[in-house]
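Dear colleagues,

As part of the handover before I leave the project, I'm documenting each prediction I ran so the next person doesn't have to rerun anything. This entry is a single chain, and its sequence is reproduced below.
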Amino acid sequence: METRSAANVATTDHREAGHPCYRFKPVEFAHVQAKFKVVKANPGADPAKGAGNLNGSAFQIWFMLREFNAKAVRMFGYYWADERPQALPPVGSIVEAGWSRRNVLVFTLPEAYQMAIGGGREQLNQWQSIDRNLAEDLAKAFPKIDLKNLEVVGITIQADTDSLKADSEAWFRQLSIRPAATLTTPSSLGR
């Protein structure tokens, strides 16, 4: 995955021939594992709400969520924390996305939270592994939502560099989402 002054998104579209569309409940399929490597980051990026227009990250995985019998969509993501003047956020910390609940002409963007999965110069060019319990992470991000009523309706793997007009490069090797029963240890990041 590579960007040149704009976001580059990889996603599965069920309307295209040969591309399946999956929906699942995060309480049933909670075990998320991924491998990626950031080669070129976006120094100065800060995806948190209130950080100005510095929204961005060299690597993100987003889950689009819908509550049963509700029209509202929410989003939750894991992101690479890029170098910035203030300290890197702790791994596992959650921030509200800078564009979350923003009014745009005739609609409001969805409520969205992101969890830091690593970052910083010392982790560039190294394969990173995440091994997360998505249901636990969603409970931290959306404490008032009954997780049994949530369904994942879309996933994107992307870089976001348009706010900073920067270039980034990240390599993506694997994403697996398995039944919660395959979780053998508490949520962890990296290995």
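Confidence is low (pLDDT under 50) at residues 1-15, 187-191. The domain at 2-182 is CATH 2.60.120 (Jelly Rolls).

All the best with the project,
I.
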